[in-house]
Amino acid sequence: ADIPLDPRLPRDKSDGDYREAGMNLSVSWFPNEQWRINLFEDVYHRWFPAGETGVTAFYLFDFPRIADFTGTYSSLSIDYIPEEDLEFSLNVSHSKQFYDTFKENDSSSFNIGLEATYRF
Question: Which of 47, 64, 73, 117 could form a disulfide with 68 if both were Cys (CB 3.0 to 4.6 A apart)?
Answer without folding.
Answer: 47
